[in-house]
Amino acid sequence: MKLSFKTFFSTASLIVFFSSSPFSAIAQCKSALKEGIKKLSPYTHTGQINTVTLILDEPSEIHLSFYKGLNYKFQIGAEEVLGKVTFRVLDEYKTEIYNSATSTNPTSWVFYSNSTQNLIIEIFAVEKGKQGCAYLVVGMQQPKSTTIRTL
Predict the structure, then answer these.
(1) Is 100 helix (H, G, I), strand (E, B) or coil?
(2) Where are the beta strands (DSSP E) in the chain?
(3) Domains and CATH numbers, the chain
(4) Residue 82, phi then psi, degrees to nearest 5
(5) What is the pLDDT of residue 91?
(6) What are φ and ψ of residue 29, in 5° steps?
(7) Distance between CA atoms of 138 and 43, rounded to whole angstroms?
(8) From CA 56, how far away is CA 29, in angstroms rounded?
(9) So what's the pLDDT on residue 150?
(10) N or C: more exposed end of the chain, with fewer CB within 10 A?
(11) Is residue 73 within 8 Å of residue 149, measured between CB atoms?
(12) Among the listed residues 33, 55, 75, 74, the one whose alpha carbon sits nearest the alpha carbon of residue 124
């Protein structure tokens, strides 16, 4: 009977430890995420929060839909332990549309959607071997002009 009592509490301790780990990762990413939402201004945040855990040298993918006739702004960032992140935007056929690694502003991108479309956003850690929480927030607005990049 002692053995099963010990086993029960050991198992319960492991369950509590592993179930609390995602919550601590989310909490660490929360302050970085708040800053990202502020950087969307003057765009209106869509309300959707996209967080990913970057593990070692693998990118994380986020699939999102965009609607015809709107300007959009992507803002990415990460918790401090992860360092800088970059992103690529791919169409549904996996053709690269944009790569922030070659941009003067690697944490945001503004574009006009001339059709309703699904896009894939891949987020990468710049420093290899790092892991942690990264985020992508999206803002939108009615176009005032079409002088920004059109997709």
Answers:
(1) helix
(2) 44-54, 60-66, 70-78, 85-90, 96-99, 108-113, 117-125, 132-141
(3) 2-141 (2.60.120.380)
(4) -80, -30
(5) 95
(6) -85, -20
(7) 9
(8) 17
(9) 61
(10) N
(11) no
(12) 55
Q: Which residue type sits at 3?
A: L
Q: φ, ψ for residue 70 (rounded to 5)?
A: -125, 150
Output the tens digit of pLDDT for each of the chain's 151 residues.
454 544 443 444 333 333 334 444 556 678 888 889 999 999 999 998 899 988 877 889 999 999 999 999 999 999 888 888 999 999 999 999 999 999 888 899 999 999 999 999 999 988 888 788 999 999 999 987 655 566 6
Q: What is the DSSP letter of 120?
A: E
CA 46 from centre of chain: 14
Give me the sign of the Cα torsion angle 103, 105, 110, 115: positive
Instruction: Output the six-digit token pair for 94.
Output: 């996996």
The separation between CA 76 and the C-alpha centre of its own chain, rounded to angstroms, equals 6
Question: What is residue 13's three-state secondary structure?
Answer: helix
